[in-house]
Specification:
The protein is of the alpha/beta class and about 375 residues long. It is about 35% helix and about 15% strand. The chain is built from ten helices and twelve strands. Keywords: Coiled coil, Iron, Iron-sulfur, Metal-binding, Pyridoxal phosphate, Transferase. It catalyses: (sulfur carrier)-H + L-cysteine = (sulfur carrier)-SH + L-alanine. InterPro entries: Aminotrans_V_dom, Cysteine_dSase, PyrdxlP-dep_Trfase, PyrdxlP-dep_Trfase_major, PyrdxlP-dep_Trfase_small.
């Protein structure tokens, strides 16, 4: 079977598996324990992984807080900022209509707690409009802007450099869900000082499921920006995220980050090449009966969002299932019509004709020969 649902999750890299195994078997120590070898080895492994992830994200090592993944990181950051910093005259949060459910549903929750939420509309490719963001920042005192960096269904990249400059200008916290972009574009947070908080997950770049990070950066004085923890308990992760660390998963994420950074430029080129090859195959095979919903520029390499005119996407996905793994959209909202495609103006019929192909750099062009037999 050809796996083309890498936006949902990626296969674990063989070197990642090998790095994890000792910490599931022999090196089982708790890094919060002290002095004895098993504990010290676990602690060293965690900090070594933290360093590799910071290198991949281009931030300071002590900005990295381990979580169970992007959903927890998004909840932790949005709720934590709102509770700690949300005062009566400053309870306004700006987001967009194309965010992941773990941002949108947190915003709905915060609205029920008295916060005002503004939802930015998007263009035909799912990007926010900078003038609309600035108009809101000019007219409404704002606590936080939370905007996805790269969309998981369309691949569209928001103009994050311009967004972070606007948030700096108006002295507003900025969080970005970077789950889909890490490992597929270059990320250097030290060059983007206006990004205060970032979320990502290991399993989107060939690491294990169940581990991610919340990046909590420092303020202009070099002090940590305080937030209220989502989880209270033993004080792990500098009191931001209590709970015994899953060392094997953290080691896996660190190894995945190390491999990803080493091969990043090569993998970006490969993903673009594979995407173009797949696009050519689809055009030759289906011609005018397909429509590409996504832009060709300013996007995550390796994601194609395609309408098969007159064909129900659920039926198509089931028919393809023995041969090719694809999806109708986000794995976290697969039972509903895509809110992302609704936001860019597609009708329900067009949405029901759409599937997403998402490619991995581990694939080869010859893997696409399976399309010849369909």
């Amino acid at each position: 079977m050809l796996y083309l649902d890498n936006s949902a999750t990626t296969p674990i890299h063989p070197e990642v598996k090998d790095a994890m195994l000792p910490y599931l078997l022999e090196e089982f120590g708790n890094p919060s324990s002290k002095y004895y070898t098993l504990a010290e080895n676990a602690k060293y492994a965690v900090e070594n992984s933290r360093k590799h992830i910071a290198n991949l994200l281009g931030c300071d090592t002590d900005d990295i807080i381990f979580t169970s993944g992007s959903t927890e990181s998004n909840n932790m950051i949005l709720k934590g900022i709102a509770e700690y910093h949300g005062i009566s005259e400053n309870k306004h949060i700006i987001t967009s209509r194309t965010e992941h459910p773990s941002v949108l549903e947190v915003c709905e929750y915060l609205h029920s707690k008295g916060f005002k939420i503004s939802y930015l509309d998007v263009d035909q490719f799912g990007r926010i409009k900078l003038d609309e963001l600035e108009e809101l920042l000019q007219t409404v005192p704002t606590l936080l802007v939370s905007l996805i960096w790269g969309n998981n269904e369309l691949g569209s990249l928001n103009p994050m450099d311009d967004i972070q400059k606007l948030c700096q200008k108006y002295k507003v916290f900025l969080h970005t869900d970077a789950t889909q972009v890490v490992g597929k574009i270059e990320v250097s947070l030290n060059d983007l000082e206006g990004i205060n908080f970032l979320s990502c997950s290991a399993h989107k770049f060939h690491g294990p499921k169940g581990v991610g990070v919340a990046v909590l950066r420092k303020d202009s004085l070099g002090l940590p920006i305080p937030i209220t923890p989502l989880l209270h308990g033993g004080g792990q992760e500098k009191n931001y995220r209590s709970g015994t660390l899953a060392v094997h998963n953290i080691v896996g994420m660190g190894k995945a980050a190390e491999i990803t950074l080493k091969n990043l430029k090569c993998n970006i080129e490969k993903l673009n090449s594979l995407e173009n090859a797949l696009k050519d195959i689809l055009i030759k095979k289906f011609g005018n009966s397909i429509i590409f919903n996504n832009d060709t520029e300013q996007k995550i390499p390796g994601i194609l969002n395609v309408q098969f005119v007159g064909i129900n996407n659920e039926i198509l996905v089931k028919k393809l299932a023995p041969y090719i793994a694809v999806s109708t959209g986000s794995a976290c909202s697969s039972s509903k019509p895509s809110h992302v495609l609704q936001a860019i103006g597609l009708s329900l019929n067009e949405i029901r004709n759409t599937i997403r192909f998402s490619i991995s750099s581990l694939l080869k062009q010859e893997d696409f020969k399976i399309f010849n037999d369909l």
